[in-house]
Amino acid sequence: MTAPETEKTSVPEAEALRERALASLTTARARTTLLTSCVEDPDLTAQHSPLMSPLVWDLAHIGNQEEQWLLRAVGGREAMRPEIDGLYDAFEHPRAERPSLPLLPPAEARGYAAEVRGRVVDLLTAADFHGSRLTEAGFAFGMIAQHEQQHDETMLITHQLRRGPRALTAPDPEPVPLFPGPAEVLVPGGPFTMGTSSEPWALDNERPAHPVQVAPFWIDTTPVTNAAYQAFIEDGGYDTERWWTPEGWAHVRQHSLTAPLFWRRDGGQWLRRRFGATEAVPADEPVLHVCWYEADAYARWAGRRLPTEAEWEKAARHDPVTGRSTRYPWGDADPEPEHANLGQRHLRPAPAGSYPAGASPLGVRQLIGDVWEWTASDFQPYPGFRAFPYKEYSEVFFGSAYKVLRGGSFAVDPVACRGTFRNWDHPIRRQIFSGFRTARSEAI
Q1: Global pTM value
Q2: What residue spans of 134-277 are helical by DSSP H?
Q3: What's 418's DSSP letter?
Q4: Domains of the chain (ranges plus CATH)?
Q5: Which has the closest alpha carbon to 294: 331, 261, 321?
C-alpha cells in the first residue's frame, strides 16, 4: 500500500520551504565545520570520554544519515557508500566501541559529508514538498537539519570533556542586574493543549496535540543558580541521605559525587573547567552539569520538587488570557537573540533573569535556551503516538529508564528547540548541558 499523497504545495510556499530548509542545513553545516576544524586530526580521532564518540565518527554519521534519508529515501538515489552504513549505525555500535571501528579518516569523512551535501542541495532545488508524509512541508529536510544540530550539541559536549587548551571561543552573554522579580509564579490550574499536530518539523514524540488537565502549581521564575546550589552543598546536601532517592544515594556514594561535574574547590572558592579554561563559578548563572538525581535532591532540600513535564510545558506555552498554547513562551514568532540564549552564540548560560523579551505571559524567564531543564517525568509516548519515520528515534527509549528534559540550552540551535521539543537521558547523566528549576503544588 502506498502512502496517501499530500496536498500539492503552491509555488510561493515551495520557495519559502526551500529557503528555510537550505538555511537550516547551511547553518548546521557551518557549525559542524567549526566544531571539527578547530582541533587537529588526532583530537578528531581520539575518544575523549567513553560516554562520547570520536568527533570524526559524528562527522561521517551526519553525512551518512543525510545520504540515507534525503538522497536515498526522498530522492530515490543509489547508495554512495553502502559499505559504511553499519559503521555509522548508532544502534549497532555503542559509543565506547566506536574508536575501534575502521572509521573514515578525517579528510575522507569531510569529503564524504561535503559530497552528500552537494547532491542534497541539487535535490532540494527541484523538491516540490508533496507526495508523501516524509516530504510534506519539507519534513525530511527539517529532520536532517535537526539531526545535524543535535550531533553538533553532542560534539560540543565532547569539546567540554576534552582535555587540553581551549579550542573554541565566543563572546559572553550581556551582563544583567540581579533579577528583581518574584522568585516564583503561580500557574493556574485547568486544561491546556500539550504537544503539537501542526508544527511541520516537529518530531514524532512531540505529537499529537492532546488536552491535559494540570492542577495549579508554583514554578521558579528562573532556573536554579550556582549560588543557590552552593548553599545546598554547604548545608551538607551530598552527605545527607534523606534528600536523595535510594537510587540517587547509591549513585552519589558509588561515584563520590560532591558537586556538579567540572567543579572543584580551591580553598574557599569554587572553580570550574569550561571548554579548556578554569574560572570561578559565577554565582548568578544557572547551575550546569547536574544529573537528575542531583536536581531532585536539591528540590527536596529546598522543600520543593521538580516540575512534571506537563507542568513545565504549561508554564512555557499556555497563555491564560487567550487559552492558547503558543509555540514559545513569548508567542509564535521564531526565536531571535533577544528571546533566548541559543545556537552556541555563547559558550555559557546567561545570568538568571536575562531575556525579559522571552518571558512567558506569567513572567517565567529562560524557559527556552541556557540550560536543559530536568523534569520529574519519565519519557513516555503521548496518547495516539505513532513512530515516524523510524521507531529508533523515540519509541525504543520510552520507559522509566529515561527522564525528560525540556527547553534547550545555549548549545541548541533554534531549529531543534521549541516549546514542544522533548529531550531525554538517563538520570545519571551530567556531561550534558543540564540544569533545572523547581516547583511546588499550590497550598490547599
Answers
A1: 0.96
A2: 139-161, 226-234, 246-255
A3: -
A4: 11-161 (1.20.120.450), 174-444 (3.90.1580.10)
A5: 261
